[in-house]
Design goal:
The protein is an alpha+beta fold and 719 residues long. The chain is built from 27 helices and 23 strands. Helix content is 46%, strand content 15%. Helix 14 packs antiparallel against helix 15 and helix 19 packs antiparallel against helix 21. The protein is globular, with a radius of gyration of 27 Å. The structure holds arginine and glutamic acid.
Length: 719
């Protein structure tokens, strides 16, 4: 008994990571986590998941577009991801007459699939530890303060050198990349194959794919069918090729089997995908900085901006459509910041990180390793010294650069000014046309002068309240000298007197263009001044970056030396990771208990035909009423919609496959609960849940709702 206790204690002490925590890198999986995964129920061998010498499940997982994950589900290149990941592609095929966003889209055969220029799908062919190679190259550096150890440009240069030009020439669509891990203590090289002929096969209507929209975003219980179907095409040899009618569906090395048996509480679940960014190795000072500067500024400023925007949207249906996407992306990060601060407080992250630091200091003393305590002192000092600049930079970014749309007006006016001062009429015409095009890209169909004018007033008011006049962009001097600090008059002046202030103003300028009008244009001067200030602040902050990066690398190195890397996964950096855990509900507040599975009943409970976010399509209603869910229904007669699990995921994991103990697809990840977003700093076993659309709902919608059941014929389905 005593012996058992001792061995459990020893085990626990080498494992500061909490079960289910972690975004594990595949080549390290076997050494770091595999026994725990099997103990939790995994029935596969490590080489089934990742095999450096042969194909494995990893070959079915892809980067979808620029920031999502997708998975192959058929030998004919069929791919699943989220509706919100395919949103841009679906939108680009939509018109008022043929609105695929609203009505959904389903190709009824391969000829009807829609190409998407600019969209790509990336397979990870090979992952290699190149730490020794990179460190040897870095050792040749003469500049002791070089930041090359973190520089993507430098590292990717090394990657190309390593594989050689010829390899890349002989393998079109193949790219190599070296990324740093553990703050620059380890390096891996990724050989990627990028396919650019990716066609839209199907998407549910937004009333399914985006059901609950912003109100339900970051929320559980959830009832969204957030999925879309694409197909990857290749040339006749299976190689990446630009879109061509002669391309054929890609035959991937692996595709996932689909399991319709459903989930039970505490079932093993794992996810593979491309988590974007986490800050597990924050010090206590960075936690405070994130809370008091980054998150606080974002929450305050976006609150004000969104209030004004929503008011305009509710007052005018045209504005509602124009701003719905801007509003959604603003609230997405806003709610995330709120959840992040909630968790920092609730779980006292500052103390958690402080304890970790204290442990390291004590350990370092015992082992005579002064490097690590020194690194901590440096980090503390840097965070303290960059406070003021960081606050100004966040205020400028949130309130002015992102908050006010007209800070993005075209300001490249020199060529036109020169042309107008000269005599070449043809050149003038040409430059005017260029400006006109740039202007219309800015003032596009989703831009409202009225809304921007109103929001600019709100944003400037707040900015001037928070940032002293001496620290504002130079052009704001005019606000004091000419308008006595009256923000509203300043903004009205800018709109009324700028060529970009209205369609009328711009047309008047086109009729009688002068260099003087451009050079004195208040909106251009405003925008230039904000951008100059932004550059100045970023440059000033750069002074700290180098010291920070070196100290951060030392700190992480110290933690690895103390705990060993078995327990410590590297921060997310948009590389392929595996996270595992269990299907499970949670209790975020006293007596507030959430189950793990939602059903169509909940969709009907949330239905509100007067609110666009909660409209339920008629067809879905009649399917619900008929209650004949066939093989997709649960044994209690209900139709599953979504479930949640303890898997440690973050932004970028959208579209990630969620698999059972046999590696079969049981759902598609699409969100997290807002109580769990603090997991980007410190995993929250009792609060954090990945939100996953149940694969049975996905197939039910494809088959019974859309009538595109023919797609299921090419999948491997386990009933
Ligand atoms: N919160 C999810 C993820 O970051 C979904 C975002 C898209 N949906 C939305 N309603 N904005 O990123
Ligand atoms: N919706 C997120 C994404 O687009 C995933 C949510 C999260 O942060 O976990 O990747």
């Amino acid at each position: 008994m005593k012996k058992l206790f001792i061995s459990i204690m020893a085990f626990a002490m080498t494992l500061p990571a909490i079960a289910d925590e972690g975004m594990w890198l595949l080549p390290l999986l076997r050494q770091q986590k595999f026994p725990e995964m099997q103990a939790l129920g995994l029935k596969l061998q490590d080489y089934d998941i990742y095999n450096p010498d042969s194909s494995s499940i990893k070959d079915a997982i892809v980067i979808f577009g620029g920031g999502c994950t997708g998975e192959m589900v058929s030998p004919d290149g069929l791919l699943l991801t989220n509706h919100h990941c395919g949103y841009g592609s679906i939108q680009r095929h939509s018109t008022v007459e043929q609105d695929y966003l609203t009505d959904g889209f389903w190709a009824m055969n391969r000829d009807e699939e829609l190409p998407n220029p600019g969209l790509s799908v990336t397979f990870i062919d090979k992952i290699e530890d190149v730490t020794d190679y990179v460190k040897a190259e870095l050792a040749k550096e003469t500049d002791p303060n070089s930041m090359n150890f973190l520089s993507p440009k430098f590292l990717n240069g090394l990657a190309k050198e390593k594989v050689g030009e010829e390899f890349l020439l002989n393998n079109p669509g193949t790219e190599v990349e070296i990324k740093q891990f553990y703050g620059g203590n380890q390096y891996f090289m990724f050989t990627k194959k990028i396919f650019s002929d990716v066609r839209l096969v199907g998407a549910p209507p937004s009333s399914i794919g985006k059901f609950g929209a912003d109100t339900d975003n970051w929320m559980w219980p959830r009832h969204t069918g957030d999925f879309a179907v694409f197909r990857v095409y290749a040339d006749a040899n299976g190689n990446p090729a630009p879109y061509s009618e002669t391309n054929v569906p890609l035959r991937p090395k692996q595709w996932l089997k689909i399991n319709l048996q459903g989930v039970n509480e505490n079932d093993y679940a794992m996810m593979m995908g491309f988590p974007g960014r986490t800050n597990k190795y924050y010090t206590s000072w960075e936690v405070a900085e994130r809370r008091d500067i980054d998150n606080a500024v974002r929450i305050r400023v976006r609150d004000l901006r969104q209030q004004a925007m929503l008011d305009e949207m509710l007052n005018d249906p045209a504005v509602r459509i124009q701003y719905s996407s801007k509003y959604a992306s603003s609230t997405n990060a806003h709610k995330n910041a709120i959840g992040s601060n909630w968790a920092i407080k609730k779980r006292n992250f500052q103390q958690v990180k402080q304890d970790e630091q204290d442990n390291l200091i004590a350990w370092s003393k015992k082992n005579c390793e002064p490097e690590y305590p020194d690194a901590l002192l440096t980090l503390e000092e840097i965070v303290e010294n960059r406070k003021g600049l960081r606050f100004r930079s966040w205020m400028l970014d949130e309130a002015l650069s992102r908050g006010i749309e007209f800070t993005a007006v075209p300001t490249q006016i020199e060529p036109l000014v020169l042309a107008l001062k000269g005599k070449d009429k043809e050149l003038q015409k040409q430059e005017l046309r260029a400006l006109e095009q740039a202007y219309h890209r800015f003032a596009n169909q989703n831009y409202s002068y009225k809304v921007d004018r109103r929001i600019a007033k709100v944003m400037l008011e707040e900015y001037c309240k928070q940032v002293p006049a001496a620290e504002q962009p130079a052009y704001f001097e005019l606000l004091q000298s000419k308008f006595k600090g009256h923000v509203d008059e300043f903004v009205d002046y800018i709109f009324d007197n700028s060529i970009y202030g209205s369609e009328t103003n711009f047309n008047a300028f086109l009729k009688k263009p002068t260099a003087k009008a451009l050079e004195n244009d208040p909106m251009i001067l405003f925008a230039q001044s904000v951008r100059n200030e932004d550059m100045a602040l970023k440059n000033a902050l750069k002074e700290f970056d180098e010291g920070y990066a070196l100290a951060h690398r030392s700190y992480v190195k110290g933690l690895l030396a103390m705990y060993g890397d078995k327990a410590n996964f590297p921060d997310a950096n948009f590389t392929l990771r595996l996270t595992y855990g269990q299907v499970r509900g949670y209790e975020p507040r006293d007596c507030d208990t959430y189950g793990y599975q939602t059903t169509l009943d909940g969709v009907m409970e949330k239905e509100d035909p007067t609110n666009w976010e909660f409209v339920v399509p008629d067809k879905l209603k009649s399917l619900y009423e008929a209650g004949n869910f066939g093989r997709y229904g649960m044994s209690n007669g209900k139709m599953p919609v979504a479930f949640c699990a303890t898997t440690h995921s973050t932004g970028g994991n959208s579209g990630s496959p969620v698999m059972n103990a046999n590696g079969e697809l049981i759902g598609i990840n699409f969100d997290r609960n807002w109580e769990g977003v603090g997991g980007d700093i410190q995993y929250l076993p009792d609060y954090q849940r990945s939100i996953i659309v149940d694969i049975r709902y996905v197939l039910f919608i494809i088959d019974k709702f859309a009538g595109a059941g023919y797609l299921l014929d090419e999948m491997d389905i386990i009933e």
